[in-house]
Design brief:
343 residues; alpha/beta; 2 domains
Amino acid sequence: MGPTAAGKTDFAISIAERFGGELISVDSALVYRGLDIGAAKPDYPHHLIDIRDPAEPYSAMDFARDAEQTIKDVRRRGRLPILVGGTMLYYRALLQGLDDIPASDPDLRADIEREALELGWPAMHSQLSLVDPVLAARLHPNHSQRIGRGLEVFRMTGKPLSDWQQGMAEPKVKGPVIALAVCPQERRVLHQRIEQRFDQMLALGLVDEVRRLFNRGDLSPDLPALRAVGYRQLWSFLQGDINLEHARDQGIAATRQLAKRQLTWLRRWPGLYWLLTDSRGGLVAIEPGAAAEQSVAIGSDNWSALIGSIASRVPTDANLAEDDELMGFLSQYLGNSIDFQTS
């Protein structure tokens, strides 16, 4: 687990290579074909990448169903399932479960979409804040899909979506999980990486990638695929709403906001341990997150010794994926009954 641009993928690949694992992508942009540069699509094999056309919405429940089957298949082959990505709602759907919320009503949803075209999504967000202030406080005023869904559920049931989400839910996958979150210790390092990566994506041809999607003619920026950071902003550029410089700046700002939301989720994730890195990607500290006593590794004298060792070590040029001390510790806890999250 971890915020965008934190270095999750390289660490997950190292775990897979060392311990006979297979990577399962937990990323709402990577499921779509044609979202390559802007989604930082990896070259290393991952399950649940390129499984949908951008015109086809893909939900958290879809992911939970597909990931559940994928984990079963990986285990059947005697391999280690490793979940890697930053879409926290997907993790929740799979490992904690989602509530039995009423299915979407196409007619009601169409009415809400027409209303939004007339009033704008910020005005719809204001409506949502009156009937579901808890949900509205978590959403950006232009997050059209989730605002629309919140209004839809309230208008169907008279009950706020945030109340529905407090019910009992059943996880799709049960059993012990090692939850590790990779993150730079200093926020400025994360922000620098986000800016550098976005500029690199532009240099690699992100504008042309978005233009190919734009020129298809059957896609709109309200589709889940095109709400991914970078794509929405460059779509506005191609529509002539903003210039490329503004699109770049907005894309970087949106990516930083995404990272902030991911960190908020992660601080509440039970049993999680933070792997904090320096500007070179080297491990400098391990810190417990929320309810860390629930972790399968807790109670181990070796784990406590590792934390102390990391805290007192002299910095080296080795990055997280090359940290033999950390990998040696993790090897003690691997087996077919344990899965990894490196979000």
